[in-house]
Design a protein that fits this description.
The chain has 167 residues and is mainly β. It has one domain: Immunoglobulin-like, CATH 2.60.40. It is built from one helix and eight strands, in the order αββββββββ. The strands form two sheets. Strands 3, 4, 6, 7 and 8 form a five-stranded antiparallel sheet that branches. β3 and β4 form a beta hairpin. The chain is elongated. The N terminus is likely disordered.
Length: 167
């Protein structure tokens, strides 16, 4: 019985050490956030609804070492997720330009600040960007995306894989 207690105590100590090592705060040194493409989600319009439209959602994965991703929407109107649409037309990728040249921020979004993020601690997650019905002049599109944190640090720019709209 005494031998079983020693083995049990050692096993409990090992489990405790392993559990504590998993609870460490993960820090990193990069100032700028980093992003990568995660996935698309496409929702086809209901053919029975004359007002319905297809919609596309772009998911982008991010990591930020300082945890300062996201803006306070009530006091800051900056758009910190910069997304540009490219269409495949006549064998070339062409950046979509809105008919109104002053409307250059058509796909720019504000990533809201999360109460779960702690400044100066590594934050990571998925940004969901609903783009609505964006089919323009081509059935094949892609995006260029960049994220800017509250300190003004710009992430890497990513180019997403192409997306082909179903017929």
């Amino acid at each position: 019985m005494n031998g079983m207690l020693k083995v049990g105590s050692k096993l409990l100590a090992l489990i405790t050490i392993l559990a504590l090592s998993q609870c460490r705060i993960d820090k990193c040194e990069e100032e700028a956030p980093s992003i990568e493409f995660y996935k698309y989600a496409y929702f086809a319009a209901d053919p029975g609804d004359p007002f319905a439209a297809d919609s596309l959602v772009l998911y982008t994965q991010f990591v930020d070492c300082q945890g300062d991703v996201g803006l306070n929407g009530s006091t800051d109107t900056t758009k910190n997720l910069r997304t540009y649409l490219y269409e495949f037309i006549d064998g070339e990728w062409k950046r979509f330009e809105h008919a109104n040249p002053r409307d250059t921020v058509l796909f720019f979004s504000q990533v809201p600040k999360s109460n779960k993020l702690v400044e100066d601690q590594k934050a990571e997650g998925i940004i969901e960007q609903s783009l609505g019905s964006i089919r323009q002049n081509s059935d094949t599109i892609r995006f260029e995306v960049q994220l800017i944190d509250r300190a003004g640090n710009r992430s890497n720019k990513i180019t997403t894989p192409e997306f082909v709209f179903p017929n």
